[in-house]
């Protein structure tokens, strides 16, 4: 019997698999054992060919050549990873290799990575599929006992191929048509353009918004020495109205009257934990809490999954686990029974885990279950700050789902004053439950002691006041809210949304102001030039649904692709026949050192940059960038300007410091530790249990002791 070749997606995953399969003979680009040979891609090794791969005339962008729609799209080896492709191809062709195991990431894109490589090699050997949701030794071992024929995943490959080909046909043609027509670098795509349009719509809503004043009434009543606030409520249940006269009349009407208690109740309620994380939800929370971009969060979760083996597969759109995972939950809790999680984890381990449909549901798990910890114990000091923060989010959410609900008494009181209704609600927490894991409580999570009332009793009204406010415009989008809108409108997938947002920034169609996302002039103009349907979230959402149907064998790939080709032809005609104009409004007087054209000043996620206006010239020059270094005077983030030895840190408060003196100052600080730092370090050392914690001051303290 011949050897089995295992194809992983990345070297780290390949080495983990090789270790489990007892492959010891490490070579250049693969590891060999008695029964298995494990090799890997470097992400994609093969991709769709550029237009010039079909005909050299396409090297020059011309409108008359569009649309470019080959009968069959072909693939090419990516030049920068060509050596690894040749290594994999040689292994695939080896006479002693009789079987292939696809062990790339278990998802649509992972399927594409492997199938493109194998198809490009021309090798036709029996193939099986490893489908696992974590990279632990245990998961890999179990996975190899449950290998299935790769044919089971053929429709998933069709869906991945359709996605890639649709993006190529629409992206290549629309981008070339717009760029040639308006002589500007205008990037356009099947998902990115509707996403950009979502940001534009929000800008328009904010611009068109007209604030309205609203009014309400607050009264204070006295009860056993306590002051209770009650709010007026009309017959429709509203606590405010836009008509001030209505409120003024009610105030005059109730003056001098007591309040009579009409209804009074105390109900014990339970508040259950939020659901487990999928990728979208953790990207949203990481953006809200830490300001991390969607791409930063994805790469961090990927590192915790791939490198540290602490979390399960991140590119999931499910917030549930499947029933076969239930038996592993206790081991996962044991793995996180450390540090700040110990109290709650220990409590969970004392009891039998209660399973409910709120987090275990096979029907809600298609490819992968929610992001949860693996059975691997964490060494927290091995994690970066970013990894530690993301890990913390996942573990707290995981333990919350398994722990007790928050319990509280909700006191409701309804009074009547001169025929008008006034109400109040109070929350008195009896048991924190899962909220023990979170130090910062929500604003409404207050401990209240409320007097006991009787229906029919009269209460003295202490004061009456008119309240007022203004309606607020919709808030600007940030990465968290943009991800929510993309998910709601079925734009992209959990695996692709981060890259789509990142591309909109790198194409200078979006920029950031603090956490807010702003559409640039270029972005606004682009939306004015793009065919109407290509901006439509509804159409793109329908395409995504069809891609899902292809993976479920409910739609033929060719039917979908013919629709994409027909639409692409129409879109090009619309662009060709348009009489719209495009104008750079960020042109500077700086000339490009390479081609002599003027440079455009653009904002990136990290600062400001000059970019050559000539679409055939790629010259870029950084003007300034926002750094993570903090101003020693006001503690805001410093901006780095200049080039070479003239680089200088600048703060909005007026502080300035040369890069060289900044570096010297940091070196000195690194060798010192403050009293506060030392006390904190000693306190940690005196803890009863010796836990591993990240401690940036240990080295500095050690030096002081010498």
From TrEMBL:
Q: Which residues form the Toprim domain?
A: 3-134
Q: Which reaction does it catalyse?
A: ATP-independent breakage of single-stranded DNA, followed by passage and rejoining
Query: What EC number(s) are associated with this protein in UniProt?
Result: 5.6.2.1
Q: Which residues form the active site?
A: 313 (o-(5'-phospho-dna)-tyrosine intermediate)
Q: Which residues form the Topo IA-type catalytic domain?
A: 153-572
Residues involved in Mg(2+) binding? 9, 105
CDD domains found in the cross-reference section: TOP1Ac (cd00186), TOPRIM_TopoIA_TopoIII (cd03362)
GO CC aspect terms = cytoplasmic replication fork
UniProt record, GO biological process: DNA recombination; DNA repair; DNA topological change
In this chain, the stretch annotated as Disordered covers 683-706
The record's annotation in Pfam families points to: Topoisom_bac, Toprim
Q: Which cofactor does it need?
A: Mg(2+)
Q: Name the segments for region: Interaction with DNA.
A: 187-192
Q: What GO molecular function terms would the record report?
A: DNA binding; DNA topoisomerase type I (single strand cut, ATP-independent) activity; magnesium ion binding
Looking at the UniProt record, the site noted as Interaction with DNA sits at 61, 168, 176, 315
Q: Which residues form a coiled coil?
A: none
**PROSITE patterns registered for this protein in UniProt:** TOPO_IA_1, TOPO_IA_2, TOPRIM
SUPFAM superfamilies on file: Prokaryotic type I DNA topoisomerase
User: Keywords for this entry?
Assistant: DNA-binding, Isomerase, Magnesium, Metal-binding, Topoisomerase
What the protein does comes down to:
Releases the supercoiling and torsional tension of DNA, which is introduced during the DNA replication and transcription, by transiently cleaving and rejoining one strand of the DNA duplex. Introduces a single-strand break via transesterification at a target site in duplex DNA. The scissile phosphodiester is attacked by the catalytic tyrosine of the enzyme, resulting in the formation of a DNA-(5'-phosphotyrosyl)-enzyme intermediate and the expulsion of a 3'-OH DNA strand. The free DNA strand then undergoes passage around the unbroken strand, thus removing DNA supercoils.
Q: Which family does it belong to?
A: Belongs to the type IA topoisomerase family.
Q: What is this protein called?
A: DNA topoisomerase 3
What is the native source organism of this protein? Peptacetobacter hiranonis (strain DSM 13275 / JCM 10541 / KCTC 15199 / TO-931)
Gene designation per UniProt: topB
């Amino acid at each position: 019997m011949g050897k089995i070749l295992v194809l992983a997606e990345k070297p780290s995953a390949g080495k983990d698999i090789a270790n489990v399969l007892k492959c010891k003979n490490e070579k250049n680009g693969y590891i060999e054992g008695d029964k298995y040979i494990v090799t890997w891609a470097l992400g994609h090794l093969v991709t769709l060919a550029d237009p010039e791969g079909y005909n050299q005339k396409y090297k020059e962008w011309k409108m008359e050549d569009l649309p470019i729609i080959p009968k069959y799209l072909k693939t090419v080896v990516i030049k920068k990873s060509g050596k690894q492709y040749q290594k994999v191809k040689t292994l695939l062709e080896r006479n002693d290799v009789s079987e292939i195991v696809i062990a790339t990431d278990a998802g649509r894109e992972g399927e594409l990575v492997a199938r493109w490589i194998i198809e490009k090699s021309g090798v036709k050997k029996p193939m099986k599929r490893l489908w696992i949701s974590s990279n632990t030794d245990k998961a890999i071992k179990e996975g190899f006992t449950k290998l299935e024929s790769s044919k089971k995943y053929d429709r998933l490959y069709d869906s991945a191929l359709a996605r890639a080909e649709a993006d190529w046909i629409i992206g290549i043609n629309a981008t070339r048509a717009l760029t040639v027509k308006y002589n500007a670098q205008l990037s356009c795509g099947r998902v990115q353009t509707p996403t950009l349009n979502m940001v534009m719509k929000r800008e328009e809503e904010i611009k068109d918004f007209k604030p309205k004043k609203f009014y309400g009434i607050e009264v204070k009543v006295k009860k056993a020495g306590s002051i209770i606030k009650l709010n007026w409520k009309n017959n429709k249940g509203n606590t405010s109205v836009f008509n001030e006269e209505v409120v003024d009349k009610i105030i005059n009407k109730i003056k001098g009257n007591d309040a009579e208690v009409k209804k009074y109740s105390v109900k014990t309620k339970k508040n259950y934990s939020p659901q487990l994380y999928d990728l979208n939800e953790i990207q949203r929370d990481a953006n809200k809490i830490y300001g991390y971009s969607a791409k930063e969060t994805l790469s961090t979760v990927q590192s915790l999954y791939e490198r540290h083996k602490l979390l399960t597969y991140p590119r999931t759109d499910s917030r549930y686990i499947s029933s076969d995972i239930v038996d592993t939950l206790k081991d996962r809790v044991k793995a996180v029974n450390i540090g700040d999680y110990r109290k709650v984890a220990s409590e969970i381990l004392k009891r039998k885990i209660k399973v409910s449909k709120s987090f275990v549901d096979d029907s809600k798990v298609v490819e992968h279950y929610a992001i949860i910890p693996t059975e691997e114990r964490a060494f927290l000091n091995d994690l970066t700050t970013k990894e530690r923060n993301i890990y913390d989010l996942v573990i707290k959410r995981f333990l919350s789902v398994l722990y007790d609900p928050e319990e509280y008494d909700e006191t409701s009181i309804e009074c009547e004053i001169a025929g008008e209704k006034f109400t109040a609600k109070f929350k008195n927490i009896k048991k924190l439950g899962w909220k023990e894991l979170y130090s910062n409580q929500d604003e409404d999570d207050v401990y209240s002691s409320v007097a006991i009332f009787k229906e029919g009793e009269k209460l003295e009204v202490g004061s009456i006041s008119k309240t007022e406010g203004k309606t607020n415009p919709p808030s600007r989008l940030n990465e968290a809210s943009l991800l929510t809108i993309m998910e709601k409108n079925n734009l992209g997938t959990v695996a692709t949304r981060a890259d789509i947002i990142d591309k909109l920034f790198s194409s200078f169609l979006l920029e950031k102001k603090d956490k807010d996302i702003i559409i640039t002039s270029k972005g606004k103009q682009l939306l004015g030039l793009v065919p109407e349907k290509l901006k439509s979230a509804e159409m793109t959402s329908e395409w995504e649904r069809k891609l899902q149907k292809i993976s479920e064998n409910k739609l033929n790939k060719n039917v979908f692709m013919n629709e994409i080709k027909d639409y692409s032809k129409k879109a090009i005609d619309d662009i060709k026949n348009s009489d719209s104009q495009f104008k750079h409004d960020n042109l500077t007087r700086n000339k490009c050192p390479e081609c002599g054209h003027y440079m455009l000043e653009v904002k990136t996620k990290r600062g400001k940059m000059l970019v050559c206006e000539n679409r055939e010239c790629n010259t870029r020059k950084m003007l300034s960038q926002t750094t993570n270094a903090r101003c020693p005077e006001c503690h805001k983030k410093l901006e780095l300007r200049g080039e070479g030895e003239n680089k200088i840190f600048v703060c909005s408060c007026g502080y300035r410091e040369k890069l060289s003196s900044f570096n010297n100052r940091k070196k000195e600080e690194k060798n010192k530790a403050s009293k506060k730092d030392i006390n904190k370090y000693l306190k940690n050392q005196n803890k009863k249990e010796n836990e591993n914690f990240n401690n940036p001051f240990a080295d500095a303290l050690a030096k002081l002791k010498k």
